[in-house]
Every structure is written in structure tokens, then in C-alpha cells.
Amino acid sequence: MQSCPPDAVNGGNIQRERRLRRREDFQRVLATGRSRADNYLVLKLSEGTGKPSRIGLITSKKVGGAVERNRVRRRLRGILGPLVLKPGADLVFIARSSAAQAPYSTLEGSVKSLLKRAGLVVAENEETGS
């Protein structure tokens, strides 16, 4: 069975240049960033060092077991992937324990509401997978 090239299956993923990956970047955002929160998520945001806004996700063991944590991460990646954000910010979404039981539409509303309150949403990309 042949697998697809990584670019062909990018529907629910956040592109590599739009991801926070280094521990130092996460620590900087968590230490110096501003906060927005609701019942399901906490958004920490800080001025970024790169041109595109970068996104990181944190789901602690408080959210649930591995299956629940991975489900929350997959949902958040699916919601954040097609969004077009203003450049120059680093964002970290921290899932609260209630996020594991929240339906997809509720998480989607939560993400969009937090980003709107932070003034970061430009548009929603209609093209999926590219």
C-alpha cells in the first residue's frame, strides 16, 4: 500500500512554517504572552519573531487519557489549519479538561471567538488541502 506525499494530505494539518516547535518558543509565549480564555481553551499570544503567525497546542493529562488528548489536538488542528491569521504573532492554545467532552462545533466557536477577541483573524481559507 502506497502512502500519499505529505503535501497531498494537508487538510487538517497546520503547515510546518506556521507551527511553534521549539521549547524556548513555547516558554517565551507562556511567560510573556497576553491571555484570553473561555470554558474550553486558554489562548496565550506574544509578538512573534517570524513573519507568519505560529501556533502551538498544549493538552495536558488533565484533559484525559492519550485518546482524548489526541482527539482534542486533531480537532484543534482541523479548526486552525484553514484559518488565515494576521502575521507576526506566536500563539499557544492550552486545552482545558472540558475540551475533551465539547462537540467539534463548540470547540470551533471557542477558537474563533478567542482569535477574534485577540484581533488575529483575517479570513477563513476556503481551499482545503492546499
Automatic annotation (TrEMBL):
Q: Which UniProt keywords apply?
A: Endonuclease, Hydrolase, Nuclease, RNA-binding, tRNA processing
The answer, when asked if tRNA processing is one of the entry's keywords, is yes
According to the UniProt entry, what is the EC number of this protein? 3.1.26.5
Extract the coiled-coil ranges from the record.
none
Superkingdom of origin organism: Bacteria
Tell me if tRNA processing is a UniProt keyword of this record: yes
One term under GO cellular component: ribonuclease P complex
Return the InterPro entries for the record.
Ribosomal_Su5_D2-typ_SF, Ribsml_uS5_D2-typ_fold_subgr, RNase_P, RNase_P_CS
What reaction does this catalyse? Endonucleolytic cleavage of RNA, removing 5'-extranucleotides from tRNA precursor
Q: Which GO terms describe its molecular function?
A: 3'-tRNA processing endoribonuclease activity; ribonuclease P activity; tRNA binding
Q: Name one GO biological process term.
A: tRNA 5'-leader removal
Q: Matching PANTHER family, A to Z?
A: RIBONUCLEASE P PROTEIN COMPONENT
Q: Which family does it belong to?
A: Belongs to the RnpA family.
Its subunit composition reads:
Consists of a catalytic RNA component (M1 or rnpB) and a protein subunit.
Q: Which NCBIfam families match?
A: rnpA (TIGR00188)
Q: What does this protein do?
A: RNaseP catalyzes the removal of the 5'-leader sequence from pre-tRNA to produce the mature 5'-terminus. It can also cleave other RNA substrates such as 4.5S RNA. The protein component plays an auxiliary but essential role in vivo by binding to the 5'-leader sequence and broadening the substrate specificity of the ribozyme.
Q: What is this protein called?
A: Ribonuclease P protein component
